[in-house]
Design goal:
The complex is a heterodimer of chains A (112) and B (122).
Chain A: E1 9-12, E2 18-23, E3 36-40, E4 47-50, E5 64-69, E6 72-77, E7 86-94, E8 100-103, E9 107-111
Parallel strand pairs in A: 1-9
Antiparallel strand pairs in A: 2-6, 3-4, 3-7, 5-6, 7-8, 7-9
Chain B: E1 3-7, E2 11-12, E3 18-25, E4 35-41, E5 48-54, E6 59-61, E7 69-74, E8 79-84, E9 93-103, E10 106-112, E11 116-120
Parallel strand pairs in B: 2-11
Antiparallel strand pairs in B: 1-3, 3-8, 4-5, 4-9, 5-6, 7-8, 9-10, 9-11
Classes of the chains: A mainly beta (112), B mainly beta (122).
């Protein structure tokens, strides 16, 4: 059972927009802790997509954006492309766990 | 160019101690604000954070695994070592190490290794 809750799967056609939610609690996202988003293909290096207040590392296209409200965060991907098909994870920090990193359960994005 | 590479045994027997090494280049663990983290992913499951070591040797551990984990660094070799005692088949996973930096107040876990698969089996 992950501390952060994500939908197991989402899907969309090429060119469409998809949103992946990440629900936490008052001890992590709701406490103002930053949320990071990663793109991951099992067996490969996780790729940081979003950090801080909706910031993207160099090289991450602006098709990827993040937002936060209350105890939840969202990753929005616009202009969906075939190579966006991957697992996506949110990660935050939990004050009730001594600042431990906490992850969501991951969301499998399928590009139809 | 920043790289991290995990190494260690691919097969470990239950109750043994697992030692994993993260060898990195392109940055220094002597630099203020830099840290190296370990996470893992059991087959078919989600990512799980294990431990973190900072440039000043401050260390943090997953509360659920704290009693079994030790993280150390060797700045002269650009390595971080994670030791896990009394392993169990449930510790079978791909283990990843990654860099975390702080830039103008933003925490950025920006680079990760490709991971190393560890199987715990007798």
């Amino acid at each position: 059972q992950s501390v952060l809750t994500q939908p197991p799967s989402v899907s969309g056609a090429p060119g469409q927009r998809v949103t992946i939610s990440c629900t936490g609690s008052s001890s992590n996202i709701g406490a103002g802790k930053v949320v990071h988003w990663y793109q991951h293909l099992p067996g490969t290096a996780p790729k940081l997509l979003i950090y801080g207040k909706d910031k993207r590392p160099s090289g991450v296209p602006d098709r990827f954006s993040g937002s936060k409200s209350g105890t939840s965060a969202s990753l929005v991907i616009t202009g969906l492309q075939a190579d966006d098909e991957a697992d996506y994870y949110c990660q935050s920090y939990d004050g009730s766990l001594s600042g431990s990193w906490v992850f969501g359960g991951g969301t499998k994005l399928t590009v139809l | 160019q920043i790289t991290l590479k995990e190494s260690g045994p691919s097969l470990v027997k239950p109750t043994q101690t697992l030692t994993l090494t993260c060898t990195f280049s392109g940055f220094s663990l002597k630099t203020t604000g830099v840290a190296v983290a370990w996470i893992r992913q059991p087959p078919g499951k989600a990512l799980e954070w294990l431990a973190l070591i900072f440039w000043d040797d401050d260390k943090r551990y997953s509360p659920s695994l704290r009693s079994r984990l030790t993280i150390t660094k060797d700045t002269s070799k650009n390595q971080v070592v994670l030791t896990m005692t009394n392993v169990d088949p449930a510790d079978t996973a791909t283990y990843y190490c990654g860099r975390r930096i702080t830039v103008f107040g933003d925490v950025i876990p920006d680079y990760w290794g490709q991971g190393t698969l560890v199987t715990v089996s007798s």
